[in-house]
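Example protein as discussed:

>
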Amino acid sequence: MSYIVVSDAQITCSFGVSPGTLTVLPSGPALQQIGSKNVATIMDFKPQVNIAPFGMCTTLSNPQVASATSAAQGVLTPQPCIPVTTSPWTPGSSTVMLGGLPVLTDPSTCLCAWGGQISIVNPGQQTVTTS
């Protein structure tokens, strides 16, 4: 069983130190709401627009973290998270579409260019979809 994801869903990154929030902008002809919250699609992956930062980033594949860690003589030195997502959430729903796009469901993930996996912790509501 999967849940449809809506705006204000709680998300996490495997290299972030705190949870973030998914924002679904109120735009486009495909806009739908559950309750008073906008329904997300797999295309709601834009950093700083849809995907908020996760506090501090802890991966050495992030050049800022690598540089700060090097300056600290090898002691891991987390730096402010700035998500770098470049591709849609996957897989999304196989049966529920919105404006020709799969709606976002809670098993979906999104990848950050620095290697982090972004996951949905709380979909923001309790409406069920079949896939």
Remarks:
- The first strand starts at residue 2 and ends at 3.
- The radius of gyration is 16 Å.
- The chain has a mean pLDDT of 93.
